[in-house]
Structure formats: C-alpha cells, structure tokens
UniProtKB/TrEMBL annotation:
Originating gene: ramA
Molecular-function annotations in GO: alpha-L-rhamnosidase activity
Protein name stated in the entry: alpha-L-rhamnosidase
Keywords of this entry: Hydrolase
Domain Alpha-L-rhamnosidase six-hairpin glycosidase: 428-779
Species this chain originates from: Citrobacter braakii
GO biological process, one term: carbohydrate metabolic process
UniProt enzyme class: hydrolase
Enzyme Commission code(s) on record: 3.2.1.40
Catalytic activity, reaction form: Hydrolysis of terminal non-reducing alpha-L-rhamnose residues in alpha-L-rhamnosides
Length: 888
C-alpha cells in the first residue's frame, strides 16, 4: 500500500512564523520493493477541509519528494495554512490524500504595530534583575473569536503569559543571535488562551545574552543596556475583522521576584516578592509603573520557524550522597544542560541554595574549579505557604551533580528533578552494538550534542564561556547531522556567521561574535586575534556543504555562498605562493603532542592552514557546481589544484617523506587528498608507525582526531581504525567511558589515569568535539553514506565495514526520504573465511549501492544482482528490506 506518511515544512513537521513559503517534502511508505514516485500533487489552503485552495500544483510528473519550492503565493500574515499531498508510483499505485500539515505565517517588518517597551531604565545597565510587563484588554463573546496569533520577541530573554498561563513550551526565547542584525521573533496560536471579556497579556523579561555578563572576560551590555519586549497579536473575529493588541506606552511594568538572573551564574529568586496572579484579569496593577518605549529597530526581526530551546526530558536523581567533606550532593547520573526543579516546604524567609557542577574530585568531594568564574548557583527564598515548586527562568546550568548548600529540613530524592533543555531537534540517528562500552560512547556523543546545542552550538555548557566556537561546530557538524535533524539549527547559526564576518571575509572564532574589540588583555586573543583561524573559520564553507550533503539543502548553500566565497578569498588575499596565515592559529588544539603546559599541538600551523585552504577551496568549487555557477566552479577548481601542488612542494620530499612527523599532519594529508599517488603508501605506513610509537594510541587534538579513523579505513587499514576506536586505556575514546564519562571530554586527560585533573583553567567534561568519531561510526562502521550527485540520501551507498571484535551492529538514520537501516552480524572465522549477514532497509523513492566490503563468496543474495567492485561486491538496489550473506 502506498501512502504519504508525513509532510515536512523546512525539514520540520510543524512550522510557525514563516514569512515565505517553506520548502516542502514528504515521507513515503509502501509494502512493495523498488518503489519510485512517478507523480505528485500538492494543495495549499487556509481551510482544513481544502474547500478552497490557495494553490494547487496539479499533477507533477517527477520523482521529487524533498526540497520542493513552490511559486510565490500571496499568503496572509498571522494565518494558519494547511498542506496535503497525493502521489503515484512506478507500480501503478496511488496514495490517498496525506494527512494535512500546517504552518502559521509570520509578520513582515512593515506590519509590526508593536514597539519595544521596557520596565527597566538606563540606570539598570549593571542590573540583571527580572521585570514584568502586562496589558489588559477586552474581547467580545468567545463565539466571535475565530483565531488569535501572537508574534513576540525581546531584547534579553522572555516568557509570554496570557491569562495566568505561560504560552508555549519554549525556554530562553528569543535565543541568541547577532542581535544588531538578526533578532528572532516567535509565533504562537493563542486562540485557546483567550476568553470573552477581560484578558491580560504579559511577559517576564531577563538580561540573558543581550545585556548580561558574557564570555570569560565577563563583559556585559554587549548588545544593549536595557531589556525590552515587543509583541503583536492578531485576533480574527467571525465577521472577518481583526483586533490588534500590541506593545505600546500604555503597558505597565514592575520588578519581578527574580532579583538576579545570569546565564553563567544562575538565578536569585525571592518568592516573598512574587506578584501572584500578575498576568490574570483579576490582578490589581495600580502600583505598577508606566513602561518606557525604546528606539530599537523592528527591521532586524526575523521569524524563528523551528528549533526553539525546550524542555526535552526529565531525569530523577540516582542518589543523594554525602562526600568525605560531609557535603550533601545530588547525583543525576548524567552530565546535562538545563536546570533543577524542586518542591520544598519551609518557613517564610528560609532559603534553598544549589550549586551545579560536573564531577567529583579524586577523593569524591565537590569539584568546582573548572567552572572558573561561573557560579552556577540557584538561591531561592521561600514564601512559607505550604509546598512550593520552583525552577529557574533565565539561566541554564551544565551539570551532573548538585551541591545542596542550604535546604530547610532534610532533602529527599523525590524533591528534585533535572530538566534537560536543548534546541528541539528531531532525533534521526541510533546505533547499538554488541559492545556495551561502544554503546556508551555513542550515548556520550549524543548527550554531548544535547548539552551543547542550546540555541547555538556551544563549546561547553558549564563554565564562563558557552560560546559558539566555529572550530567545534565545524568538526562536529556531520556527526550532529546523523544524530539529529540539524539543518534548521545550523542554518540559523550560519546566518549569524555571515552577519559577523569581517568586511574582508575573515570569520570570527565564535558566532555570535562577542570577542572582537573586547579582548585587549587576553593572553591569546589580544591585538585583533579574534578571527580567521584555520579549521575554525572554515566552518563558513564546511557547514553549508555538509547541510547540502545531508539534506540536499540548496537554499542554505545558496544563501551562504557569498560568505563561503568571502572566506576563501580572505585566505587567498593573505597567501604567498598559496601559503597563508593569520595572526592567531589554534592548530591541532589540545593535542597530546603539545609541549608541556601548552594547548597548541606539534603539527605546524603552516601545514594546517594550507590543508584547510585546499579543503575549503575544493568544497567551494563543488558548491559552485551544485548551484550552477560554472565560472566559479572552474576558477576554484583550478585554485584548488594549485594549492595542492604547493602543499606537495612545500611539505613532501622527493622520496615522499612528509616534513611534519605528527599523526595529524599525516591524517590531514591523507584525508584531504593532498598526498601524491606515488607517496600514498609511504604516508599510510608512516601514520601506522606513529601509532605504533604511541602503543597504538592517538595523540591528536581537535584537528586530527575527527579524521583519524577515516584516514585509516579509506586507505586499506580498516582493522587499524577499529583497533584505534576500541582502545580502552589512556588516551582513547573508551578510556573516558571506562572512567565513568556520560558525555565527551574537552581533553583526553581531563581526568588522568592517577585520578588527578587537567588544569582547571580549561577542562570541560561536556565538550563534543572528540565526539566527531560518531561520523565514522555511521559512515563506515554502519556504512550509511550519501552520494554527492544525489545528496540528501536520494542515492545512498551502504557499505558497512564490520570489525572491532563486535558480533553485531544495528544502525538507523532518518533521512529526508525516510529511515535507512543497517544490521550486520559476523561470526568467528572458519577455515580462513568469516560469514557476515547484512540486513538493510532503504526508503521509498530512493536507491542505494549496497557493497559487501571484502566479500569473496556470496552465500545468499536475496535476489540482488551483485557484481565485483573495488574491494568487494556491489548491487544497485531500490527501496525495501533485503538480507544477504557473504564470506570474507
């Protein structure tokens, strides 16, 4: 049976606030094999029954079911629309109409009637208190209200409230962007929140990223000195008329019970000062003050259509422990980002004080040193009226443990729950194997993503940093895109990268950029060294290209193309004979071959810079080709060839010796295809020698680690790649697992074998960069890969490479066309041959090249037509489930 299971809108299943028509796609299901779509029809209507269609595509005779852009259609703002799809396939079957997907349109800049208002004054510039805003209004009989849509945003952070209820599930809205260029607004359908007669709309507002203390330099008021709030609500009545409720000078303001709220330091809340019922009509606001209007521009407002930060899950404490120093500590069993919600009873004026942290020290005591200046503290004053329930509002913490510094009475586990917060992305990847430690590693990689994808891709969620470091985001982008649907998340972040790029094309180290001009006394970043480091700045090119590969996303590729090109031209402008550099280079950051006490690995910066120059230029050339820009494709392809030639002349001797004898130098040369063919075998052998010299361990940092296993497996050394992955002693991925890690560490030796800590100066235990090995698990161990000529897994290559002593592996990836699944089992070798069983699932409207790596004998082909290919047997396969058995 043929059916359209679901429709996607900009890769999401629901969408609010879009100002242009989304990109459409749909997931097809069928009980048949080799299903290909032959035609489709899409209808768009403002009516759920589609009685009248605003747009009808008619029968379209092609196989597109992803990344479909419709002609311009005149949609009304602040309106809900419905979409449905009907398809036919190559077997002569046709689906019924799909279930309708819905989206709500946003509010274009010229339509905003609201202005930014504030309950703060300029004298509050050094204050991080919370404020309340409210406005009362009347509506006619409820039967006359057809719909109500509200659009809102803030200079700072906010929560929207109507008639005593918080609107939506979002937290930390409007998120963090380059606010002067790009301020997101949120859109909600609030029809069910309204009532006939008196209503109240209001907001809680806090400092957030906008004016709070930010970065390790603790600089505040980076974007402004006064918080603000703006909203525009459209209430549509049955007679077709509309009522607009918007922020203006008639609103009222008041200080909140939030006495202090900062991203790094936590929240101080005095329940004795609560304005109870403040957003309800019965509340008397006579003592509230008039608000001030702000001159902030509404032209920068852009819709947040998806991926808000939300509560995703809840974790109960595993235990309450008493440390050797008699400290009372909650253990949630998982390093996470979010906050603690608690229930407490006590007398008025008693306090709860909680300190959040990641690890216990070697003696089992509280360890706070790696937080640096971040307090991560919650201080709550009770009002003393029975059971009180509290959670923070405008902060988040990175933690596994919570020190209970003050609590009325004796705390119990039932009093607490950890609320996990991160951007609401759809999970797409799962791997499970016969090895429990490898499963835990995958778990740690996933939780590293969860802990750091809190509106932007941060480096860490706990210390006084939490910045969008470009290198980390670049390194992890493809792994993240296997684990979750990251297109919307990264597209938003890349918009800010483009905004914050220097006029010359340089790319700041962190996005949004809050370091430029604020690091005069920093040991690394002073004297203008806040942008354009190789591997970091290359996120400008690598991340858009990755979104294109993973999702077939030409929209982001086209939007970012000028930014990509500007970065490559920046390198070109600062190059002499294709060798370029810029002030500060991080190189192979925190590699173990660094000098004692240094963060900088031993691989020469000159090599790293030229290697990434070559890679970004190649990807830019490929992007130009994908976008139909033949002139740029030819130009940058030629430039790439010249850079590769210069690299070889500079770093390879005539006999094939690579000048820099480090693991990372050889990894980059191999993986970036910079090695002359005649010298490839020597380069591979030298890399194996470098491994052997370290007893089979890696000593690589941020630059070399992501590609290590790839460089081996792509050059005939899959067994060596598996051996490297499965190492259990220091340094290795599984060393962290054996040490009890639940996320990925910043340093291989974050906790050393003797139990001591790396320097507290920079020692995060939730730092996803080394989790980039996840890409290898999906692309090589599970063998799930897309093809450049048909991105988004329209055409996939399924070539798993079993190994590592595993007896089985199961993997699933939710592509834009549907789930791709791989399950392999391997038996012990007999008579020199090993039997492997492979099961695959390929979604409808796609096809795959299934390759049996190293196959010598085919035992059961399930009717597939296999033929010899390089290194095994391969067959072109349509959609469906297949099971094959072979020997190698």
């Amino acid at each position: 049976m043929l059916a359209v299971e679901k429709i996607t809108l900009n890769y999401e299943t629901t969408l609010t606030g879009c100002e242009t028509l989304p990109v459409f796609g749909w997931i097809i299901t069928s009980t048949l094999r080799d299903v290909q779509q032959r035609s489709w029809r899409l209808q768009l209507s403002a009516q759920e029954d589609f009685a009248q269609c605003l747009f009808d595509s008619g029968e379209m005779h092609d196989d597109r079911s992803s990344n479909i852009e419709l002609p311009d259609v005149a949609c009304q703002h602040s309106t809900r629309y419905f979409v449905r799809v009907h398809i036919t396939d190559n077997h002569g079957e046709e689906s019924g109409w799909s279930p309708a997907a819905t989206f709500i349109t946003g509010l274009p800049a010229q339509a905003w009637q609201g202005v930014f208002i504030s309950a703060e004054t300029p004298q509050d510039k050094d204050n991080s208190k919370g404020t309340l805003l409210r406005h009362a209004f009347s509506l006619p009989d409820g039967d006359d209200i057809v719909s109500a849509v509200v659009h809102a945003s803030a200079l700072g952070l906010y929560q929207l409230w109507i008639n005593g209820e918080k609107v939506g599930r979002d937290e930390l809205s409007p998120g963090w962007t380059s606010y002067h260029h790009h301020l997101l607004y949120q859109t909600w359908d609030v029809t069910e929140h309204l009532r006939e007669g008196e209503n109240v709309i209001g907001a809680m507002v806090g400092a957030g990223w906008y004016k709070g203390d930010m970065s390790f330099n603790r600089y505040r008021n980076y974007y402004g000195q006064q918080t603000g709030f703006i909203c525009h609500m459209v209430v549509t009545l049955r007679d077709g008329s509309q009522r607009i409720i918007a922020t203006d000078a008639h609103w009222q303001g008041c200080d909140d019970a939030i006495l202090f709220a900062e991203i790094y330091d936590g929240e101080v809340y005095d329940a004795l000062r609560e304005q109870r019922g403040w957003s309800e009509p019965a509340f008397s606001a006579g003592h509230w003050r008039a608000v001030t209007t702000l001159a902030a521009e509404t032209s920068v407002l852009q819709p947040q259509t998806a991926c808000p930060v939300q509560e995703i899950e809840r974790l109960a404490p595993c235990s309450i422990i008493t440390t050797p120093k008699s400290e009372t500590v909650l253990d949630f069993g998982q390093n996470l980002s979010g906050w603690v919600e608690f229930r407490v009873r006590g007398a008025a004026g008693e306090r709860v004080v909680l300190r959040h942290f990641e690890v216990l020290d070697a003696e089992g005591n509280v360890y706070l040193a790696n937080l640096r200046t971040a307090k991560q503290c919650i201080d709550y004053t009770l009002r003393g009226e029975g059971e009180e329930c509290y959670h923070p509002h405008f902060t988040f913490q990175g933690f596994r443990y919570v020190l209970i510094e003050r609590w009325p009475g004796t705390p119990t586990r039932d009093d607490f729950v950890a609320v996990v917060l991160h951007s609401a992305m759809t999970p797409t990847g799962h791997i499970e194997t016969s090895n429990a430690d490898l499963n835990q590693l995958h778990h740690n990689i996933m939780w590293g993503l969860k802990g750091n994808f809190v509106d932007i891709p941060t480096d860490c969620p706990q210390r006084d940093e939490r910045l969008g470091w470009t290198g980390d985001a670049q390194i992890f982008c493809r792994t993240a895109s296997y684990l979750m649907q990251t297109r919307t998340f990264f597209a938003k972040w890349l918009t800010d990268l483009q905004h914050d790029q220097t006029p010359e094309g340089g790319v700041p180290h962190v996005i949004p950029d809050i370091l430029t001009g604020k690091c005069d006394n920093d040991r690394f970043l002073s004297h203008g060294r806040t942008h354009s480091a190789a591997a970091w700045a290359d996120a400008a090119v690598i991340n858009p290209w990755t979104l294109y590969l993973m999702y077939g996303d030409k929209q982001t590729l086209a939007r970012q193309y000028d930014s990509m090109k500007a970065w490559v031209e920046f390198m070109h402008d600062n190059a002499v004979e294709n060798q370029w550099s810029w002030k500060l280079q991080f190189g192979d950051w925190v590699a173990l071959d660094a000098k004692e006490g240094s963060y900088f690995g031993a691989t020469p910066n000159e090599l790293t810079c030229m290697a990434y120059y070559a890679l970004s230029t190649l990807l830019l050339a490929k992007s130009a080709k994908a976008l139909g820009n033949d002139v740029d494709h030819t130009h940058y392809q030629a430039l790439h060839t010249a850079i590769v030639e210069s690299f070889r002349n500079e770093f390879f001797t005539a006999t094939g010796r690579l000048a820099a004898r480090t693991q990372t130098a050889h990894i980059l040369a191999l993986y970036f295809q910079l090695v002359p063919d005649a010298h490839r075998e020597r380069t591979v052998q030298t890399l194996l020698e470098l491994l052997a010299e370290n007893d089979g361990h890696l000593v690589t940092g941020f630059v070399g680690t992501p590609y290590f296993c790839h460089a081996l497996s792509e050059n005939g050394q899959a067994d060596a790649a598996w051996q490297l992955l499965m190492k259990e002693d220091f340094p290795s991925w599984l060393y962290q697992v054996k040490a009890g890690a639940t996320t990925i560490w910043e340093h291989w030796d974050g906790v050393k074998p003797d139990g001591t800590m790396w320097s507290p100066d920079m020692n995060s235990f939730n730092h996803y960069a080394y989790g980039a090995i996840g890409e290898w698990l999906y692309r090589v161990a599970a063998g799930i890969n897309t093809e450049e000529h048909a991105p988004g897994f329209k055409s996939s290559v399924l070539r798993p490479i079993p190994g590592g002593g595993l007896t089985w592996l199961k993997a699933r990836y939710g592509s834009v066309y549907g789930d791709i699944a791989v399950h392999w089992t391997q038996e012990p070798a007999r008579d020199g041959l090993q039997s492997i069983t492979l099961e695959v699932d390929i979604p409808p409207n796609t096809h795959s090249m299934v390759i049996l790596d190293g196959a010598q004998t085919l035992l059961d082909t399930d009717g597939l037509d296999f033929a010899p290919v390089d290194g095994g047997y391969g067959a072109q396969v349509g959609s469906g489930h297949y099971r094959v058995i072979w020997q190698r």
